[in-house]
Amino acid sequence: MNTTPGPARTGRSGWAMLSAALLLAACGQPVSKLAALEPGVDAACALDGMVLKDYPASKAQIRYADGQTDYFCDVMELFGAVLAPDQRRPVAGLYVQDMGRTSWKQPSGHWISARDAWYVAGSRRPGSMGPTIVPFASADAARAFATVEGGKVLRFDQVDAGMLRMGGGAAHDQGMGH
């Protein structure tokens, strides 16, 4: 048995910290933050292969700890992926586009943290495949949009799987081949 306080103890401590980090990663907790990426002109939706630039409204992305990125042509698809009970891949960032600062018809840039955004669910404004959840960087912008377009202002943690079945968004991928 090694009783010296040398490298062997430090090694065990290091392994314990690494094990704890891996355990957190396995639970889908953010490991380290990665910045949003601007998708290329040929970037496709991770769920259905639709080319993002061909559709209106906010896009979304998941940055994984391994550096990979999944893009979504609709914010509802992001929520569908995040709320999936089998989502275990280590996430390093969730991003949506601030619809208070980018074009509805051809959104570009203005990526914000999905967890910090304000959302409008149930508005009259259609997304890529019908009803959508619209993200904003500020509560004021979300409330102003809801006043004009209808809908309810929510925070990230208030969006639930039932809201994704409004027809369109993540629901369109069930049984549809693109």
Provide structural commentary:
It is a single chain. The protein is of the alpha+beta class and 178 residues long. Helix content is 22%, strand content 17%. The chain has three helices and seven strands. The longest helix has 20 residues, at 7-26. Residues 1-30 and 167-178 have low confidence and may be disordered.
Descriptive terms for the model:
single chain; 178 residues; alpha+beta; 4-stranded antiparallel beta sheet; 3-stranded antiparallel beta sheet; 7 strands; globular; disordered N terminus
Short recap of the structure:
With 178 residues, this protein is α+β, with helices and mostly antiparallel strands. The chain has helices spanning 7-26, 75-83, 139-149, and strands at 60-64, 69-72, 91-97, 111-113, 118-121, 133-136, 152-155.
